[in-house]
Amino acid sequence: MELLLMALTTGIMVGGIYALVALGWVLIYKCSGVLNLAMGELTLIGAYVSLSFYSMGIPFLLSLLFSLIIGLVLGILTERIFLDRLIGEPVLTVIMVTVGLSFFFKGTVEFIWGVDTRTFDPPVFSMEPMRIGPLIIGKVYLWSFLAALILLVAFVSFFKYTRWGLAMQATADDEMAALSLGVSARFVYAAAWAIAFMAAGVGGTLLGNINGLNISVGYLGLLVLPAVVLGGLNSVPGAIVGGVIIGVLENLSGAYLDKYFPGGIKEIAPFVFMTVFLLFKPYGLWGWERIERV
Amino acid sequence: MSTTWLPCGDYHQSYREDHAWFQTRFIKGKMILLGLVLFIFIPLMGETYSLSVCNQIGYTVLGALGVQLLIGFCGQVTLGHAAFIAVGAYTSTLLILEFPWPQFILDIGLAYPISIFIAAVTAGLWSVLFGLPSARVKGFYLILTTMAAQFITVEFIITQYVSQIGGRGQAFSLPPGTIKIGPWVIDSDLKVYYMMIVLTSLCIIGLANLLRSRAGRAWVAIRDNDISAEVMGINVIKYKLLAFFVAGFIGGVAGAFWISNLAAISPEHFQWFWSLWLVGVILIGGVGSIHGAVFGSIFMVVVMELLQLAVIPLADEYPKLLMDFLFVKEAAFGLAICVFMIFEPYGLAYRWWQVKNYFNLWPFSYR
Asked: CA-to-CA distance for B360 and B358, rounded, in angstroms?
């Protein structure tokens, strides 16, 4: 019972971070229709940038802010240099450009920062676990979850209440109508990429705080794909729910299935689940069903 | 793009001519010349280094052919092809190492050829297993399931379980002399080259023949529009699975061939990177043509070798560049894909076609 509760709470908390990254993914897809396979590398970049600032002695929150700013600039640059030219190209082309970008980013990150595991030193969150009733939770998880929650609320209210957010929603809904109402679609695309970069950066920083930072954090960033498939590709609430479900699923399978399949079942379980899920519900929980005609 | 341009006023007069392998004498001569170069000239002239580059190219071609069939001819985007290559490589290795071969088979050197065939069939069936979702999903969702195939096969099953067989730890190494075809022990680059060129030619000819059969036309129909294909009476699922089988089969051949060139087989050789690399190869070479896969392989392997050569003189000043060359290579590959997709979306095969056309009509073009 305790194992179940532990796995559930840890899962939900890690899932909060996945939800944050998945939100960035869904945003890009909704606004510009780009299926982004470079999300893992975006988390890596953000995480390494904030780590570098942090190890220079800059306070954590400030270095996170700096990484947000750099993420913003990089996001706009990426969109302008690579993806702006690809609007209206076939899906495979766009996907492969994001794959190319992911290699480019990954190679660059590995070249600059190396492949050894780095940690935030001194630790940002104290190692002392917290006790809530029978539960023992690492402070890192708790704080990460809280941070993810705050940012999720911030992002969602940005979309609901600000002018730019509304413009982005409008473009996602109907690009032609939005254009005719004076919304600049190019601005929206750039903004989507910038926000995705920032969300992924925060997610990566939090993930790096949990287990130290190396290339495999990029793999964790790849877990957004099962998350968004679960929620439906173009649904913001779906992304959040999907992220949490994937986090829980990962930890549950780590807790219960590891006995039967020793080794990496924890990393594989989301993908197995996704494959099976796709067979039954290809459009996810809240995604739009596409009707195809000849 | 595969149509041959005949000289003005020259028409086919029978279906036989229309379907002929070599449509004109010139093409026949050209192909014979190519065969001579590949089978006699390169092995005679090549040194160890250039032969090993050729072997890499051959391996990439074999891997990319399957991806080309799935993406270019059947429209089923796959990002997990390295998994099937890995299945081929591991099946063949395990058969050689663990299977109790009768002595006479070992004596006449049939163990490795038989293991190649079994490995290819196993990889094909494994590929069909992960092609099953294509019955339900397509496009981006299919990409995700093939990605899952990669992670499940290589990162989980092979790393955690298959590698444990025989208690050798993470890597299998084949003792010298076990890779033997007939009387020849495959131990030098030259012998690997001959094996590579035979296997590659067989696979290319086989695939090209399949593509001009009913199956090939069905694949192209599915690629162009799967709903209309179904309306026309093509059993879409059957042909999709057949495509997965053939692609996996060729991938298995590639894997089983490559173990002859590897000192030790470990899961690191079949990472997700390699799957994406193969897709990049066909995108750069040109989607939807067999020579696209070949051009892409030659281009990528040669460019990466040149990049390495270019980095060596810089190494004195920036030793990090050479030490971390793998990462430079990764970044360069990523950038190459982006640049090709943006500026040359039809790939090298399209340029080749343009050049050929230009000379077909030279010096008096119709325009």
From this structure: 5
